Amino acid sequence: MGWVGPQRPWLYLVTDRGCMGGRPLAEVVLAAVQGGVRCVQLREKHLPLADFVAMARALKAWLAPTGVPLVINDNIDVALACEAHGVHLGQSDTPVHLARKQLPPDVFIGLSIETMADLHAVPAGCVDYLGVSPIFATPTKTDTRTVWGLDGLRTARALTTLPLVAIGGIHADNVHAVQEAGADGIAVVSAICAASDPCQAAKNLLA
Hints:
Elements: E1 10-14, H1 25-35, E2 39-42, H2 49-63, E3 70-73, H3 76-82, E4 86-89, H4 96-102, E5 108-113, H5 116-120, E6 129-132, H6 149-159, E7 164-167, H7 175-180, E8 185-188, H8 190-193, H9 198-206
Helix pairs in contact: 1-9, 2-3
């Protein structure tokens, strides 16, 4: 518990192979890390379990020399199998208090919150950071209940001491405003995965 990002704002990449234009996962992720990404979440909604585990193990090995932690989206079994550094859970996934019991104590847990009610319901002592989702409307996540906006992010910041990772529609033109509204971390999907130069895209976000 108590995980914190290596810098503020942390630049956090959530993978989406569907918008990588056929490029290998390793190529895009490692270029993004070279550009300044400091946390990588592997999100695979449709892979069979064995393939998900194999991909996670390979990605963890690629990231090992960089010191960048690997987070697994949704799947605790995959996280355990590949010895991931963290797990990110949504509101419909394994409840975080149960996940905390299943995972080693050094594995950190992130939880997506989509409403103020979700924020108020976060159990004490189980979560290391909150993913505030989405800040702006985005085609990469269409199943959310609300859009937070900058004012919603400011309100969330005032109500919790947990680190907040903002995601959803964030790009180089609005990232500063998101940081100013209280985000400790900035998570992006297509802004890096779909970029022709993921390294430069990461640098632009951090600049």
